[in-house]
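sorry for the late reply, my laptop died twice this morning and i had to redo everyting from scratch. anyway the thing you sent over, i finally got around to it. pasting the sequence first so we're on the same page, its 381 residues, then the predicted structure underneath. double check i copied it right bc i was rushing
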Amino acid sequence: MPKSRRQFLRIAGSTAVIAAAAVGGFVATRTPEVALAPWSSAGSSYTDTRKRALSYAELAPNQHNQQPWLVTLEGADSFTLSYDLDQMLPHTDPLNRQIVIGLGCFLELMTMAAAHDGYRADVVLFPEGQPEPVLDGRPIAQVTLVKDASVRTSVLFEQVFTRRSNKEPFDVSRPVAAADLAAITNVVGDGAVTGTVSDEAMIETLRDVSWRAHLVEIETPRTYMESVDVMRFGKAEINAKPDGIDMGGAFLEALNLAGVVTRETLSDMTSNAYSQGIDMYREIIFSAMGYVFVGTKENTRRDQVAAGRDWERMNLKATQLGLAIHPLSQALQEYPEMDSLLVELHETLGQQGARVQMFARVGYGPALSPSPRWPIDAKIK
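ok and here's the structure:
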């Protein structure tokens, strides 16, 4: 059991919760198999090349696991990528920048999957114009898959099933080599702004900035509750709605059944569950052993899609290197309470003239289960 979850024992205050988790095979039956099935079925059972590629694409990282993508199949070889406006995060992502980045991740993984089958993905971005200042229903892309013998599979595609956004504490006894951090950022496309941090003093500085940004988000009621509102507690709830933040597994589900960690207790900013959550995340933030970031010179919708495609490759490269990577989105968010930290992070990274799109801590972390996903057929209109 990861250390951060063991710490929740202090919330329970008795052994009753642990005992409950062990009774009647509870532990063995808490895996949400339905919600995890897309990870094992990706690429299989589909004769339609588009569905095969899309079944991989939906495994892409995305903000709060909202899985906002929607697809309309057209003709025999094309589709339009759009999004579900009900899956936005208006308080922490009021301009939908992070949602668009997640859609860029989806496009990149789809392109890799198509190439794996010998198809070139011809992508036309924003065929009806770039939606500004927020997403308004106009699509992200029109895509046509074309059989092409010259297409080559990316070696990074091999990491698709083991890629994770690792939100556990990292091993602080294991430094990350500067060369490995550089290798993560070397996979980005032309024109991207990237950087790495391996200097101990700068790591301490960025830990502090990241921590203060986290506190702003969780101490601002509307932004904090946006996360609580998309939490899914326990196997049944996760299987029924496999998006959002999963609070599953035998341990957390036992705490939930015992009334210790529930939507109500976490909503109460005076509760032990809330304060313990703060302590847990502090350990996570301060275990960063290095940082990587990717940005763009401007901040158009096209830039955000490009950053998402770069971020997907960076994640896969980190996985290939045996490293854990965890996006720290808080200080990059665009709402008034975060404004000063948005500026401070750019100044600290020396990126005043650019827009940092994704910023992440890197280290060596525990192996994790995948995040729940909707089946791709649920996302095809």
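The CA atoms of residues 93 and 334 lie 7 Å apart.
thats about all i looked at so far, will dig more tmrw
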